[in-house]
């Protein structure tokens, strides 16, 4: 039987300690539901006790749902060695598990608490016995354990000997400041497992040296049974170890077992991206936008020839698909892959001309998407793969202090003009509201705008060209881009492309 790895995801507690990130009550509930019922992690840590009224309401809403759906024991709350205060907070919220924050290094115990180890253990024993009476399960965090074991190994060993005598469920060992490397992790985790072979240990990694994944690897090899993760690697400073990377190493490198449904990973990470407001870096393994995009033509060629580059990180596992970038590295094979997806057929001669144009645009640093192809083909070959049957005739946009923005828009659809005026929260919103009115009159539905991204080149130029990229969702999800020195005009250009794409059924 492969070793089983238990995941505690702490996006909603430690992840929310990312500077500038704060989740609302309903966002927390949605993330908790996704984590437990879709992604199927084993446990989630959702709050710190006593922090605020808002934190209490969020914990309660999650626990109400979890208790009603059989996940009550999987929801954990960080609490303090404070007699019954944290425990009562947790009980009132409907919780059943406390992750008790204790001092894992002599320095912290003596200098922060101003207590000896024996005094600290006595306080812990008091809180644990109250928890036992209340029927609350206790896990114990040894905060700053990685420094503790380095500087005061005897303290850590004596502490765990003391904890072993109490009725606790597991010990959770944080590398609080992300200081360890993989060799140190192996050395220190081995000390723990060899001294306490019957104890369950979780490892809690931070990423300050970008070594969190390597350290998790080492801790699991030493026989630790659990790992703490966050979605997208959120967390204080450089963050916690990302769940996505842990899934990768546990399944593909260690060949251990876990319950997580990796096909739901991307969807859950995107949800947290939108709630946290922090974009997932495009090159973040498994979940970044570009990690399944082949750029060089030679890879596309290999994929066309019996899947020569096939490997274990295939996108379908994670609910994603391969794509083939268009730019100066594109060969005919990449272009053919994109044309096939759009259902467009070109002769070898036509493909050559279109390839040359894409390479030329790539050389000018322009980014080209699959959806730009029909427009490029029209440009190069003059053929009507996309018929710009929708044109903007004119528009006016207003912005004023204390008043809503207004937009009047006139577009031509198949030779006939349509004009509407609408207000909005900002010029582009007003523009889209006018467009929606026109589409209502036409009896057609517009795709939903699901993402709006503006790229402004670094530097202080106010007239710099900006690229606005909009992601649309109809039956399919697609992106269009617009380029202009005015951000709203760039968005309008992207929108007109979208209208012609849906009109031409591309
Ligand atoms: C609060 C503690 C457990 C923590 O997150 C850490 O030490 O990293």
UniProtKB/TrEMBL annotation:
Pyruvate carboxyltransferase domain mapped to chain residues: 5-266
Top-level taxon of the source organism: Bacteria
UniProt-listed InterPro entries: 2-IPM_HCS-like, 2-isopropylmalate_synth_dimer, AIPM/Hcit_synth_CS, Aldolase_TIM, LeuA/HCS_post-cat, LeuA_allosteric_dom_sf, PYR_CT
Cited PROSITE patterns: AIPM_HOMOCIT_SYNTH_1, PYR_CT
Pfam families: HCS_D2 (PF22617), HMGL-like (PF00682), LeuA_dimer (PF08502)
Xref: Gene3D superfamilies: 1.10.238.260, 3.30.160.340, 3.30.160.740, Aldolase class I (3.20.20.70)
Record keywords, A-Z: Amino-acid biosynthesis, Branched-chain amino acid biosynthesis, Manganese, Transferase
Membrane-crossing segments per the record: none
Classification via PANTHER family: (R)-CITRAMALATE SYNTHASE CIMA (PTHR10277:SF57), HOMOCITRATE SYNTHASE-RELATED (PTHR10277)
Family: Belongs to the alpha-IPM synthase/homocitrate synthase family.
Protein name, per record: 2-isopropylmalate synthase
Organism expressing this protein natively: Reichenbachiella ulvae
Organism lineage: Bacteria, Pseudomonadati, Bacteroidota, Cytophagia, Cytophagales
């Amino acid at each position: 039987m492969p070793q089983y790895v238990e995941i505690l995801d702490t996006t909603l507690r430690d992840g929310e300690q990312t500077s500038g990130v704060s989740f609302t009550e309903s966002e927390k509930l949605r993330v908790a539901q996704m984590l437990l019922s879709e992604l199927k992690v084993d446990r989630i840590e959702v709050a710190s006790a006593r922090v605020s009224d808002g934190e209490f309401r969020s914990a309660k809403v999650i626990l109400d749902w979890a208790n009603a759906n059989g996940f009550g024991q999987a929801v954990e709350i960080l609490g303090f060695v404070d007699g019954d205060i944290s425990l009562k907070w947790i009980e009132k919220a409907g919780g059943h598990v406390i992750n008790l924050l204790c001092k894992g290094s002599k320095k912290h115990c003596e200098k922060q608490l101003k207590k000896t180890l024996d005094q600290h253990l006595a306080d812990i024993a008091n809180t644990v016995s109250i928890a036992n009476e209340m029927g609350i399960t206790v896990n114990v965090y040894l905060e700053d354990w990685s420094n503790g074991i380095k500087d005061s190994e005897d303290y850590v060993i004596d502490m765990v000997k003391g904890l072993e005598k109490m009725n606790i469920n597991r010990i959770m060992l944080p590398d609080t400041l992300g200081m360890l490397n993989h060799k140190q992790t192996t050395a220190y985790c081995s000390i723990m497992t060899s001294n306490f072979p019957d104890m369950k240990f979780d490892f809690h990694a931070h990423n300050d040296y970008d070594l969190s994944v390597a350290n998790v690897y080492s801790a699991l090899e030493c026989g630790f049974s659990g790992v703490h993760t966050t979605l997208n690697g959120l967390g204080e400073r450089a963050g916690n170890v990302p769940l996505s990377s842990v899934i990768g190493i546990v399944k593909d490198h260690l060949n251990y077992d876990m319950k997580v449904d990796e096909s739901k990973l991307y969807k859950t990470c995107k949800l947290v991206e939108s709630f946290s407001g922090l974009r997932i870096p495009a090159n973040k393994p498994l979940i970044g936008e570009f990690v399944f995009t082949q750029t060089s033509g030679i890879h596309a060629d290999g994929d066309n020839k019996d899947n020569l580059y096939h490997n274990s990180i295939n996108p379908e596992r994670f609910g994603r698909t391969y794509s083939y970038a268009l730019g100066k590295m594109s060969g005919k094979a990449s272009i053919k892959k994109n044309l096939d997806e759009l259902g467009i057929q070109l002769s070898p001669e036509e493909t050559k001309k279109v390839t040359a144009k894409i390479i030329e645009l790539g050389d000018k640093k322009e980014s080209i998407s699959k959806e730009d192809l029909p427009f490029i083909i029209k440009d190069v070959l003059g053929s009507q793969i996309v018929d710009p049957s929708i044109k903007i005739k004119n528009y006016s946009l207003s912005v004023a202090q204390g008043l809503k923005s207004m937009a009047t828009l006139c577009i031509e659809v198949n030779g006939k003009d349509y004009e509407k005026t609408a207000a909005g929260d900002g010029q582009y919103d007003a523009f889209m509201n006018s467009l929606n009115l026109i589409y209502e009159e036409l009896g057609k539905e517009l795709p939903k705008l699901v993402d709006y991204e503006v790229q402004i080149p670094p530097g202080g130029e106010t007239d710099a060209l900006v690229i606005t990229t909009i992601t649309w969702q109809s039956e399919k999800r697609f992106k269009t881009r617009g380029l202009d020195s005015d951000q709203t005009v760039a968005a309008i250009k992207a929108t007109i492309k979208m209208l012609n794409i849906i009109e031409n059924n591309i």
